[in-house]
């Protein structure tokens, strides 16, 4: 089911009254509840809706196999509407009213950092399934999306070898865009390159003409985009209108995460280079079956199965494997089971929990946008979360609870 703001208002007060609760019990019978908080409106719905679809698919798939521990799974979905206050309200409601075995939540890093402390407060296991800037060290959280050491490094290296070392960065103005820009600077310097300029844009900005003029004047070898959200799609349209697509190459680890390559025309997006854990075009038997089954469930005309959706799907699969190994849905037994280094063979390839960081080792792929799809160019197998591993060791420090920003 999907819960909106109006339906939640009455429950929030009751949930708040229970805010002293620090432990939760699970019913011995009945379905296992999984809660999900993802933007399905408010500006980030192009990211959130495919994630929710992937979770629904994962739950249906697991239930068709008999569920978990002999119990069916019920998915409760909340729409925070790209609003941090609603994220906080729904996170408390989910933890206290749903009493879920696990919560999947958050697209932006800002929403993650709203949800994460609430899940710790109420001892509720939390999965963050999106690509992000890395560095979160929290035993109560598992991150199943890519981090900069897995994708940004590969794409910067490829871009410099292909285009040259001078780069101009445009990025969303929040911690993801800012920190990713720092990683691009680092990896550019490591390759002997030069950053000619960096510009940050609030999430609601739609006019990029001045910035495009600055880029034209700077004459970089390529542009790095860390833009995010529906408003920022305007950049790519204005870039094409200025005659720049194909003239100055562009690379991005955010492009296509919200189906930008489907929303834009080929004339507005062909040739942009991306690096992701998952491409719908991956040629392996697991992915072929997954795509066929997904299209049977949601229709042959489903736009594209995004990397962010895959992060949630493989996160659910890892959680389910942890439950089966633990023989329980209780939080700590599942955490301890996952910390044994559980793996699943996902459509994206082998995905393995790294016990020290609670992040994942996975394959990543450089691809080129072409006619509404992503054409694989180069694959890097089994990439560890090397950036977060520099600062996080939950085996040695299980009580660690912070996001580290690596000092370059």
UniProtKB/TrEMBL annotation:
Q: Offer one Pfam family short name for this entry.
A: Peripla_BP_5
Output the SUPFAM superfamilies linked to this UniProt entry: Periplasmic binding protein-like I
Q: Which InterPro entries match?
A: Peripla_BP_I (IPR028082), TAT_signal (IPR006311)
What name does this protein carry?
Transporter substrate-binding protein
| Organism of provenance | Paracoccus shanxieyensis
């Amino acid at each position: 089911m999907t819960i909106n703001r109006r339906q939640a208002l009455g429950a929030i007060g009751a949930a708040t009254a229970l805010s002293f609760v620090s432990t939760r019990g699970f019913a011995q019978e009945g379905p296992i509840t999984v809660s999900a908080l993802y933007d399905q409106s408010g500006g980030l719905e192009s990211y959130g809706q495919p994630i929710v679809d992937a979770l629904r698919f994962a739950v249906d798939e697991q239930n068709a196999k008999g569920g978990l521990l002999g119990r069916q799974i019920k998915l409760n979905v909340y729409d925070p509407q790209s609003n941090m206050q609603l994220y906080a309200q729904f996170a408390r409601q989910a933890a206290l009213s749903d009493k879920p075995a696990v919560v999947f939540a958050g697209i932006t890093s800002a929403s993650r950092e709203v949800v994460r402390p609430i899940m710790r407060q109420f001892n509720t296991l939390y999965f963050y399934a999106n690509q992000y800037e890395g560095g979160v060290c929290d035993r109560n959280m598992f991150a199943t999306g890519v981090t900069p050491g897995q994708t940004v490094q590969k794409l910067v290296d490829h871009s410099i070898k292909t285009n040259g070392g001078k780069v101009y960065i445009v990025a969303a103005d929040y911690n993801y865009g800012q920190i990713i820009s720092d990683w691009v600077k680092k990896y550019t310097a490591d390759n002997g390159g030069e950053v000619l300029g960096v510009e940050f844009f609030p999430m609601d900005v739609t006019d990029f003409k001045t910035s495009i003029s600055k880029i034209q004047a700077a004459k970089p070898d390529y542009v790095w985009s860390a833009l995010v959200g529906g408003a920022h799609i305007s950049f790519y349209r204005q870039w094409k209108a200025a005659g720049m697509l194909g003239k100055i190459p562009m690379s991005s680890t955010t492009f296509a995460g919200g189906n930008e390559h489907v929303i834009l025309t080929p004339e507005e997006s062909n040739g942009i280079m991306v690096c992701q854990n998952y491409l719908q075009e991956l040629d392996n038997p697991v992915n072929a079956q997954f795509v066929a089954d997904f299209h049977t469930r949601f229709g042959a005309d489903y736009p594209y199965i995004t990397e962010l959706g895959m992060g949630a799907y493989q996160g659910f699969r890892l959680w389910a494997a942890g439950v089966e190994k633990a023989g329980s849905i209780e939080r700590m037994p599942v955490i301890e089971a996952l910390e044994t280094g559980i793996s699943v063979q996902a459509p994206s390839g082998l995905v393995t929990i790294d016990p020290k960081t609670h992040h994942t080792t996975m394959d990543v792929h450089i691809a080129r946008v072409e006619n509404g799809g992503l054409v694989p160019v180069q694959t890097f197998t089994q990439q560890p979360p090397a950036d977060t591993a520099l600062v996080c060791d939950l085996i040695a420090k299980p009580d660690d609870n912070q996001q580290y920003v690596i000092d370059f």
